[in-house]
Design brief:
The protein has two helices and no strands. The protein is mainly alpha-helical. The protein folds into two domains: 81 residues; 36 residues.
Length: 126
């Protein structure tokens, strides 16, 4: 074997090893890219899930706050109206119901008195 053919065979062997190493490197790069893409997709799904959950929690908190504010507003409005009606000397529904009952009682007593008078006058005439 001559020097030239020995060098040539060594060069071919090295070229084959380099080509083999390039193929392995390309395969490893593709594997790494695929893993990276899968990881990125998984993380993106996690982030989207967390965002959705945060929105849901925020909505629940907003609803709770709105309910609390509504209740507070109703309480304040009721107290304000009560104070206004008191200052204007306007009777409340309770006052009107109580007066209505009292008028009914008085009407019944008046009817009873009239019946009693009517029966007395009929006895006097007879």
């Amino acid at each position: 074997m001559t020097l030239k053919s020995g060098l040539k065979s060594q060069l071919n062997a090295i070229s084959q090893r380099v080509a083999k190493a390039e193929k392995m490197a390309e395969k490893q790069v593709r594997t790494a890219l695929k893993s990276t893409e899968q990881f990125r997709t998984h993380q993106l799904k996690n982030v989207q899930h967390l965002i959705k959950r945060a929105r849901t929690l925020k909505q629940h908190q907003l609803v709770k706050n709105a309910e609390k504010l509504t209740k507070d507003l109703e309480t304040r409005a009721s107290a304000g109206l009560h104070l206004l009606f008191t200052k204007l000397n306007v009777p409340t529904r309770y006052d009107l119901e109580r007066l209505s009952k009292r008028v009914s009682q008085l009407q019944k007593r008046l009817d009873d008195i009239e019946k009693t008078k009517g029966s007395r006058s009929t006895h006097k005439e007879g």
